[in-house]
Specification:
Number of helices: 4
Radius of gyration: 17 Å
Strand content: under 5%
Structural class: mainly alpha
Distance between the termini: 75 Å
Largest sheet: none
Number of strands: 0
Helix content: 55-70%
Shape: elongated
Length: about 80
């Protein structure tokens, strides 16, 4: 009978998740400090995570939206 490695697999998945969250939050801070326009795709590229994963994280999506709401609107051409 094969050994039950599910606990190890679960722990590894949890570590990967936490590492991805850490990279995403750090990328948000970096992009904010650069006053860059933040999108899910841009954040995913900067953090090295999948764009689809970003959409599964409601707090990260809210951080993106809050950052964009706080950005001043560019002047409209006259």
């Amino acid at each position: 009978m094969p050994a039950d490695n599910t606990a190890h697999l679960h722990a590894a998945a949890q570590r990967r998740h936490e590492q991805a969250r850490s990279r995403a939050l750090q990328a948000i801070d970096t992009l904010r400090s650069e006053n860059a326009h933040i999108t899910a795709a841009g954040l995913a590229r900067a953090a090295g995570v999948a764009r689809s994963w970003i959409y599964t994280q409601p707090d990260i999506i809210e951080a993106i939206k809050a950052t964009e709401r706080a950005r001043p609107n560019p002047a409209l051409p006259t």
